[in-house]
């Protein structure tokens, strides 16, 4: 099934958090609210990425979230993350998701094993071959312990559904290498704070953590960054969003969303805990700054 959306019309994708209730179960009522907020802002929605604590959830929980959000039928596209280390499990996950009205996949590089160019090529080739939907590859060496090689993109160029790359190495020079290796590929910043600089280098958009807390403001900032307007806000933006990464994501953003009243609890799944964030002053200042824009 081909995507019904022109994904190029969605420069901002929100890597949606997974809300938990006081019993540490998925809070589906709050999940509905989060989806509607992103829908109202016109943002694409990414489910079960690292911000959504996808790998800390059980398979039945993952499946329930996909089915629930699909049944909400938001009028923005849905992307689902594919990540782990067992290829057969990932192929089974794609097969499950293929049966639901989603519109794209985020394909993470395999965790822990640190494959080289051949292993990465085989991994992504298998996943790309398992679906007709557009796929965004994910370069995040800080989590996977290995960088996606630009050569891998060249090796996979025969796949028509290789649509985009989420670049989250934090290295602008790596962005340039990817763009040279795959000039037709849409490259999205995976770092909120770097979107002004990635935009100047030719990025197509942002996969965002910050948009969970500030859906409308982040969407507007991405539009401005891509248009090259209001550069006076760039430093302010970077300082604000960097507060969301003072400890492991998504701890600060969930704490902030709890303070905002959006989440019933700031709870996370082990090994993450909101107790890691021992001072809330930085995220409170960031919240005041960003909300003052509107």
What do these coordinates show?
This protein has helices spanning 28-41, 59-72, 87-98, 117-128, 141-144, 150-155, 172-181, 195-200, 215-227, 234-242, 251-260, 281-291; strands spanning 12-15, 44-47, 78-82, 104-108, 135-139, 162-167, 186-189, 205-208. It has 294 residues and is α/β, with parallel strands linked by helices. The chain has a single domain, classed as TIM Barrel, CATH 3.20.20. Helix 1 crosses helix 2 and helix 10 (234-242) runs antiparallel to helix 12. The longest helix has 14 residues, at 28-41. The radius of gyration is 18 Å and the shape is globular. The mean pLDDT is 94.
Short description:
The active site is at residues 138, 166. One of its GO terms (cellular component) is cytosol. The protein is an alpha/beta fold and 294 residues long.
Report the biggest beta sheet as strand number plus sense, adding barrel if it closes: 8 strands, parallel, barrel
Number of domains: 1
Distance between the termini: 39 Å
Order of strands side by side in the largest beta sheet? 1-2-3-4-5-6-7-8
From the coordinates shown, what is the CATH architecture?
Answer: Alpha-Beta Barrel
Order of helices and strands: EHEHEHEHEHHEHEHEHHHH
Quickly count the helices: 12
- Secondary-structure-derived class: alpha/beta
DSSP, total strands? 8
Strand content: 5-15%
Percent helix range: 40-55%
Identify low-pLDDT runs. none
In the CATH hierarchy, the third-tier topology is known as TIM Barrel
CATH level 1 name: Alpha Beta
What would you call the shape?
Answer: globular
The overall pLDDT average reads: 94
Rg, Å, rounded: 18 Å
CATH superfamily: Aldolase class I
């Amino acid at each position: 099934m081909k995507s019904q959306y022109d994904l190029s019309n969605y420069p901002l994708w929100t890597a949606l958090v997974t809300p938990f209730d006081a019993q540490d179960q998925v809070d589906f009522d709050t999940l509905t609210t989060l989806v509607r907020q992103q829908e109202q802002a016109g943002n694409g929605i990414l489910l079960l990425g690292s911000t959504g604590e996808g790998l800390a959830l059980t398979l039945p929980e993952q499946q329930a979230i996909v089915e629930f959000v699909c049944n909400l039928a938001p009028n923005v596209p849905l992307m689902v993350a594919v990540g782990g280390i067992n290829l057969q499990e990932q192929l089974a996950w794609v097969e499950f998701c293929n049966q639901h009205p989603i519109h794209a996949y985020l394909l993470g590089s395999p965790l822990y094993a640190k494959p080289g160019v051949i292993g990465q090529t085989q991994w992504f080739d298998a996943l790309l071959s398992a679906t007709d939907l557009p796929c965004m590859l994910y370069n995040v060496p800080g989590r996977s312990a290995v960088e996606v090689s630009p050569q891998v993109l060249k090796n996979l160029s025969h796949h028509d559904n290789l649509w985009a790359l989420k670049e989250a190495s934090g290295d602008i020079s790596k962005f340039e290498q990817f763009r040279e290796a795959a000039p037709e590929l849409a490259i999205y910043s995976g770092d909120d704070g770097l979107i002004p600089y990635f935009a100047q280098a030719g990025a197509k958009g942002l996969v965002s953590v910050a948009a969970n807390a500030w859906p409308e403001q982040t969407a507007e900032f991405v539009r401005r960054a891509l248009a090259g307007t209001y550069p006076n806000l760039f430093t302010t933006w970077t300082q604000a969003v960097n507060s969301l990464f003072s400890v492991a994501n998504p701890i600060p953003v969930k704490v902030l969303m709890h303070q905002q009243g959006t989440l019933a609890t700031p709870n996370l799944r082990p090994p993450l805990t909101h107790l890691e964030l021992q001072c809330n002053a930085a995220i409170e200042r960031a919240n005041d700054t960003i909300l003052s824009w509107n």
